[in-house]
Design goal:
The complex is a heterodimer of chains A (297) and B (476). By secondary structure, chain A is mainly α. Chain A contains 15 helices and 1 strand. The longest helix of chain A has 28 residues, at 268-295. In chain A, 28% of the residues are buried. Chain B is α+β, with helices and mostly antiparallel strands and 476 residues long. Chain B contains 12 helices and 18 strands. Chain B has helices at residues 41-47, 51-60, 109-120, 132-157, 163-193, 204-215, 219-228, 238-257, 264-274, 280-286, 385-398, 438-446, and strands at 9-12, 24-30, 33-39, 66-71, 75-81, 85-91, 96-99, 288-304, 307-316, 322-330, 344-351, 359-368, 405-417, 420-424, 429-433, 451-457, 462-469, 472-475. In chain B, strand 17 and strand 18 form a beta hairpin. In chain B, helix 2 packs across helix 3 (109-120) and helix 5 packs antiparallel against helix 8 (238-257). Classes of the chains: A mainly alpha (297), B alpha+beta (476). Chains A and B meet through helix 1, helix 3, strand 1, helix 4 and helix 8 of A and helix 5, helix 8, helix 11, strand 13 and strand 15 of B. Strand 1 of chain A pairs antiparallel with strand 15 (429-433) of chain B, so a sheet runs across the interface.
């Protein structure tokens, strides 16, 4: 076939008039066609060789037995949690709710389902805390799987002692940070960026304060004159952050405060924008509630 | 039941089950039986013209955006509040979606959103009697289809073709012959000047010749030429691949020149490859019917110049026959039909005539979309790679131009070595597989243990469709 390719690349017009042989049994088929022009003969030789090779494909040999994963000692999480986890693992960057779920799974002594292992192993080095939470849930199968990709080699060399427990990281200076944000909120100074850096989960005290202030800030019926940009405030923009940060004991009050708006006279665009955000907030809270119910029995 | 070929799917939903990979159901009640259509998120994505439509539809798939919604065994409808109120209707047997919005996308985000709404919040699309405007629409669609079918049947059943038809057929044959002679000359010029310079030429070279073949009423040859346009510079061994394609094209030309000397079944295949296509209504009159319990093993979608083609691979549990259902859509449309991938279904298929029929369409199918009909039992595949390759060689011997094959291997192992994927049988022989992130999931679930694998073989690599792992058939 190499002979044919070389001639075809150069062109029969320039190549020496050598016979078109492929060293395949199909060469014999061309003998009766020697009267055809050279170009047609070359193509017929190439075509028949291609078909011959398709029909006579030789597979590779791997006689050595392949490594297999050992059975697990711990159970996997439920399909419902698996579905939540899939969405959370696909978030970029991985979020706080994922950490919370992984923590709860570890407490419940459940493993990540095999289907989600590639997603979990893909968590990048920059998300060390997430890796720290994922590692104990990988099970024997996760360790086995990690040998096949260089990017997953972190599992093979992982040392749990190297990373401080996430709970410790979170608690350092939490109260001081929350006090600063509280001060800024109360004195109407810039706080939107600060709140993003607060350790999570927020304390109950701070969460309650945030929710109360938020509730007070929501457009009310008496404020018919609100312009259509009322959502362009830190309260609107930090609501989703809050949904992932408030502790479980504040879920009920959060759902109570963050009801959809139905305000007469409010601009429909403004109302829809607010309600989309409130709905997202409620969805996250409800998901966290359901994950807790399922994993904490 | 509507007897139009391919339109009489009857999906029956028995009881709800929670399986993460199982399709979501759109429920309908029919005569005491619960009827519905299977639509997994993946398949819903396949219906959508692009990813943007899916994300836009997700935002609208909430009950607050909808009013006057309802569904019946045949249809689904509702009004969606966009910038104005749009009216959406869906014929569920074919997923035909119509909307009053001005979007040029087909289906639009509103139609997709209604399907999503019915999947996610079934109570938001309640069981109702069909309103009059839906009755009228469905009746009009049925009558149009009937009229089309009658016209086509008349053409087929007509005892003798008219003089005009004979003349047209002769004219076309002459055109094709003329086109083929011109193509033969073009191929010779190409090889005389050498393939080395083709890498520097624009794809107009191929497009112009393809246009000539369209003019010569040989669209099959035009498609081949357009496919070849993608080969130069696409890989390190492109001259070899291009030469092989050109060579097979030359063989096709040679075969057509001597078509009378060939077996009638092969004559039929050659005519189809050149572009004498047969419509389903015609095939239903002359094609072979096979009733079996068919396994819907998987689908592959391929982008072509004018849109997308989709191949759905089926394997008969009893007959072990292989079938490929082929569909086409333009960039803005959805595929006309959806199939219950991952399920087994009792169905009658009709094959296009040929030397070794493979392409088919579903004439009739009853499927109960319950857990018991998910593919769970061992796949009726080949025990070894050698057995598969032997059966493939047999196919190539009878139809030399066939280039895609269904490969179902029992007890085989998917593994990653030397920076590529492989499927290995119990005897240690292995075939390479195309790279895909989905295989990592298969490997993780299988744990490296043997599983039954279904894949598409293109003569060089496997493209895995799915694998039966434990009691589940996992789709790629």
């Amino acid at each position: 076939m190499d002979n044919l390719i070389n001639i075809a690349i150069i062109g029969t017009g320039q190549a020496a008039a050598t016979p078109f042989t492929t060293d395949l049994p199909t060469d014999a088929l061309l003998e009766p066609l020697s009267a055809e022009n050279r170009e047609r003969l070359l193509l017929l030789a190439a075509g028949s060789a291609s078909i011959y090779r398709r029909a006579a494909y030789i597979p590779a040999l791997f006689p050595e037995p392949l490594p297999t994963a050992e059975p697990e000692d711990q159970p996997y999480c439920s399909p419902r949690i698996e579905q939540y986890l899939e969405n959370l693992l696909k978030e970029t960057p991985p979020g706080e709710v994922l950490l919370e779920t992984l923590q709860l799974m570890r407490q419940a002594q459940l493993l990540l389902p095999a289907r989600l292992l590639p997603l979990a192993l893909d968590i990048k080095k920059s998300h060390a805390i997430h890796r720290a939470h994922i590692y104990p849930l990988l099970g024997k199968r996760g360790l086995w799987l990690s040998q096949f990709q260089a990017e997953w080699a972190w599992v093979q060399h992982y040392n749990e002692q190297e990373i401080p427990p996430p709970s410790l990281l979170k608690k350092i200076g939490q109260q001081e940070c929350e006090n600063l944000v509280t001060y800024n909120i109360e004195h109407e100074e810039s706080w939107q960026n600060l709140i993003g850096n607060l350790p999570k989960p927020w304390s109950t005290t701070f969460s309650n304060l945030f929710l109360q202030k938020f509730g007070a800030h929501l457009p009310k019926e008496k404020e018919n004159e609100t312009h259509i940009y009322s959502y362009q405030t830190p309260w609107y923009h930090t609501l989703i952050e809050a949904a992932t940060a408030i502790p479980p004991e504040c879920f009920s009050i959060a759902l109570e405060i963050c009801q959809p708006l139905t305000i007469k006279g409010m601009h429909i665009y403004e109302q829809r924008t607010w309600n989309n955000q409130l709905e997202q907030f409620r969805d996250i809270i409800k998901m966290r509630q359901q994950i807790r119910e399922e994993l904490q029995g | 039941m509507d007897r139009r070929p391919g339109y009489n799917f009857r999906f029956i939903y028995e009881f709800p089950e929670y399986i993460y990979r199982a399709p979501t159901k759109i429920l309908q009640l029919l005569g005491g039986q619960t009827v519905g259509i299977s639509l997994s998120p993946d398949r819903l994505n396949a219906l959508a013209p692009d990813a943007n439509s899916v994300s836009a539809a997700k935002k609208l798939a909430k009950s607050k955006h909808w009013q006057n919604t309802g569904q019946s065994p045949e249809a689904m409808w509702g009004d969606c509040q966009g910038s104005v109120l749009y009216q959406i209707r869906i014929e569920v047997s074919t997923y035909t979606i119509q909307c009053t919005c001005p979007s040029h996308k087909q289906p639009c985000k509103h139609g997709l959103a209604l399907l999503m709404l019915a999947m996610n919040e079934p109570e938001a699309v309640p069981e109702l009697e069909q309103p009059e405007w839906i009755d009228k629409w469905l009746a009009k669609r049925a009558s149009n289809a009937k009229r089309k079918e009658t016209i086509q049947n008349k053409r087929i059943e007509g005892e003798e073709p008219s003089a005009e038809q004979l003349k047209a057929a002769e004219k076309r044959l002459a055109l094709v012959k003329q086109g083929i002679e011109q193509l033969d000359l073009w191929l010779s010029d190409l090889v005389r000047n050498g393939l080395g310079s083709i890498g520097q030429k624009s794809d107009r070279l191929w497009q112009d010749e393809a246009a000539q073949m369209v003019d010569a009423q040989a669209p099959g040859l035009a498609s081949r030429l357009r496919r070849m346009a993608t080969i130069p510079n696409a890989s390190a061994n492109w001259p070899e691949r291009l030469l092989a394609e050109l060579g097979e094209l030359q063989l096709l030309i040679q075969a057509f020149r001597h078509i009378e000397q060939l077996d009638p079944a092969l004559q039929e295949e050659i005519r189809q490859m050149l572009g004498w296509s047969r419509k389903e209504t015609e095939v239903s009159q002359i094609g072979e019917r096979v009733r079996d319990r068919w396994l819907f093993l998987g689908q592959q979608q391929e982008q072509i110049e004018q849109g997308y083609t989709q191949r759905t691979w089926l394997l008969g549990r009893t007959t072990k026959r292989i079938a490929m259902l082929s569909q086409f859509r333009t960039a803005q449309q959805a595929f006309p039909r959806a199939f219950p991938i991952g399920y087994e279904a009792n169905a009658t298929l009709v094959y296009w005539p040929g030397a070794l029929p493979q392409r088919a369409f579903v004439e009739e199918m009853d499927i109960i979309l319950s857990e018991k009909n998910l593919i769970k039992a061992a796949l009726p595949g080949e025990p070894t790679i050698q057995a598969f390759l032997s059966s493939m060689a047999n196919i190539v011997a009878q139809q030399p131009w066939r280039s895609r094959f269904l490969c179902v291997l029992r007890e085989s192992t998917l593994f990653y070595q030397h920076s590529r994927w492989w499927i290995r049988d119990q005897q240690g022989q292995a075939l390479p597989a195309l790279s895909s992130d989905a295989y990592w999931t298969l490997l993780a679930i299988s744990g490296g243990h043997p599983v039954d694998v279904a894949a598409e073989w293109d003569g060089e690599t496997l493209l895995v469709l799915g694998a039966k792992i434990g009691q589940s058939y996992v789709l790629c």
